[in-house]
Design a protein that fits this description.
The protein has 24 helices and ten strands. With 539 residues, it is α/β, with parallel strands linked by helices. The protein folds into four domains: 125 residues, 3-Layer(aba) Sandwich (Rossmann fold); 168 residues, 2-Layer Sandwich (Alpha-Beta Plaits), CATH 3.30.70.270; 107 residues; 105 residues, Orthogonal Bundle (Arc Repressor Mutant, subunit A). Strand 4, helix 4 and strand 5 form a beta-alpha-beta unit. Helix 2 packs parallel to helix 3. It starts with a strand and ends with a helix. One of its GO terms (cellular component) is cytoplasm. InterPro entries: CheY-like_superfamily, Homeodomain-like_sf, HptR, HTH_AraC, HTH_AraC-typ_CS, Sig_transdc_resp-reg_receiver, Tscrpt_reg_AraC-type_HTH. Keywords: Cytoplasm, DNA-binding, Phosphoprotein, Transcription, Transcription regulation, Two-component regulatory system. It is found in: Cytoplasm.
């Protein structure tokens, strides 16, 4: 726990700060309190606080002099000033003393807590950096560390070339921490492709921090018989286990590992675990199984730990020649060429659902299938429109993104975006029947109202059945889907303007937020909240 010291001459305020906040819940303990600067200085030598929260105007020694004298004694801490005086000279002196924060009284407990927690984060960061630098020096001192990493890489990636090597002897010669004759398995950690650590900017230092967190968390489970290394974007561990190993015993440690990565590095992680092998001679098998297990994150993004042993019991169908899937794809392409775009979108949803629930394609195979559909769509559009395709660069970017998709949902989102954009381009190319144009004008002018096929048909003086036929014939989409499409286009604009989701729903003609969210996801491939987050990141 971090130690907080409070120096404040007003008893009511000092006691209020101590009692109104649950400091223990935030891993902070009150190590001392004082009513004046002189008393505070006397106590500091005994309590050694990490954070000092002090008033400025106090008897005997004021808060700023107290901080200056404490630092003069060689004490290291973060200082937070709490004062009722908004004086420029005080602020200037605080800056010179490298005070962390300057809070004006009266201050809510929440504001004081926020300042202390931010100071705590800075201390945690500094300590972590020091730990990693120490670890970096340790690894640099171990002359054979790089040799061990090189050897393990060789065993992982070149099993045929290394099969005649006496791995047990090599492991002993390199003084690996694992016992080569004992049972072992491999675990792999993958970080999100856009992961950012808020604590550590230096990539090499981040790698060592990750290794340190992994070692500290898992070492007790493996009784210290553990080797940890990086292999490109993966962090890998090889650990010895006893013959009575049960994966359920490892799960609490993996949960703790995920929590520690978030706590110390602010990084989410995904984990794959290979099967147990009788000795290091089979380490490459466990490595490849761990990678395959990790690929399951493609289908189940809500999970973050996968055991290869679980894959064997899954009852997914092998689908190298899946006739039903092929039929769905053919129907989808037929709808596209028949310009039945609403039916094509519905069939795309069916195709995606079937792939996720009934097949066992590897993620690379899945992305190839998606790219095949995109290219078919491109051929259709290029044969349909005579004008230059303005989205060519975007299309190339989409294709380049497809192989990098880490989850099925990411692939689905990109695919739906592509279809949606291409359908909009095609429907915008041709001259439209004047009755449909008038109906479109009504939708564009009054999409926030409760429009129906019948009400719009009455306004353009045709029957609802005829207007429905015209929409399908002219735009390849039914009236209701066109209305949704237009509303969702407007909703996307509003979602980038910091409106709440329920406000956007009301402003675009949806009285029910759940209906709005499900419709938005159908047409964009993502929820309104996810769209809002992405737009904030890109802006």
């Amino acid at each position: 726990m971090l130690k907080l010291f409070i120096a404040e001459d007003e008893d009511t305020i000092r006691n209020g700060i101590i009692s109104s906040i649950d400091w223990n819940m935030h891993d902070i303990t009150i190590c001392g309190e004082a009513a004046n600067g002189e008393e505070a200085l006397t106590l500091l030598d005994h309590v050694h606080p990490d954070i000092i929260l002090t008033d400025i105007q106090m008897p005997k020694i004021n808060g700023l002099d107290f901080i200056q004298q404490a630092k003069g004694r060689g004490l290291s801490f973060e200082a937070i000033i709490l004062t009722g005086y908004e004086d420029f000279q005080y602020a200037k002196q605080s800056i010179r003393l490298n005070v962390f924060d300057y809070i004006l009284k009266p201050a809510l407990p929440s504001k004081i807590l926020d300042a202390v927690l931010q100071a705590k984060q800075r201390i945690d960061q500094a300590r972590l950096m020091n730990q990693q630098l120490h670890l970096l020096e340790e690894y640099a001192d171990k002359n054979n560390y790089l040799e061990k990493v090189e050897k393990l890489h060789y065993w992982f990636h070149f099993p045929d070339q290394s099969k005649n090597e006496e791995k047990r002897i090599s492991a002993k010669q390199l003084k690996m921490c694992i016992h080569p004759e004992d049972y072992l398995h491999v675990g792999i950690i993958r970080f999100p492709s856009k992961a950012i650590s808020y604590y550590i900017d230096d990539y090499e230092l981040l790698r060592f921090a990750a290794m340190n967190v992994t070692n500290e968390t898992l070492s007790s489970f493996y009784s210290g018989k553990l080797e940890i290394l990086f292999d490109h974007e993966f962090l890998i561990w090889v650990g010895n286990i006893d013959s009575h190993y049960d994966s359920s015993h490892l799960i609490p440690y993996l949960q703790q590992l995920k929590e520690n990565y978030m706590r110390y590095l602010k990084l989410p992680i995904y984990i794959g675990i290979g099967r147990v092998k009788p000795s290091i001679e089979y380490v490459h098998d466990s490595y490849h199984e761990a990678k395959k297990a990790l690929d399951e994150h493609y289908y189940y993004k809500e999970k973050d730990a996968f055991f290869y042993s679980e894959l064997e019991s899954q009852e997914r169908k092998l689908s190298s020649h899946d006739k039903k899937l092929s039929d769905i794809e053919n129907e989808l392409i037929t709808y596209i060429y028949q310009k039945q775009y609403d039916a094509a979108l519905d069939k795309l949803e069916i195709w995606l659902t079937y792939l996720k629930e009934n097949t066992s394609y590897h993620k690379d195979q899945m992305n190839v299938k998606a790219m095949t559909l995109i290219i078919e769509m491109q051929k259709f559009v290029q044969g349909t429109t005579l004008t230059k395709i303005e989205w060519e660069n975007d299309f190339i970017n989409w294709l380049e993104q497809m192989p990098t998709m880490k989850t099925f949902d990411e692939m689905s989102t990109i695919l739906k975006k592509i279809f949606q954009n291409l359908f909009e381009i095609v429907t915008a190319e041709k001259p439209v029947h004047r009755t449909v144009q008038r109906a479109q004008a009504i939708i564009e002018g009054r999409y926030t109202e409760n429009l129906t096929l019948e009400s719009v048909a009455n306004e353009v003086f045709v029957s609802s059945a005829y207007l429905s036929t015209l929409f399908k014939q002219e735009l390849g989409i039914n009236f209701l889907d066109y209305l949704h499409q237009y509303r969702i286009t407007q909703a996307k604009i509003l979602l980038t303007q910091h409106y709440k989701i329920y406000e956007v729903a009301n402003k675009t003609g949806y009285k029910d937020e759940r209906h709005f969210s499900s419709t938005f996801k159908k047409w964009t491939g993502m929820t309104p909240s996810n769209f809002q987050k992405e737009s904030k990141i890109s802006s």
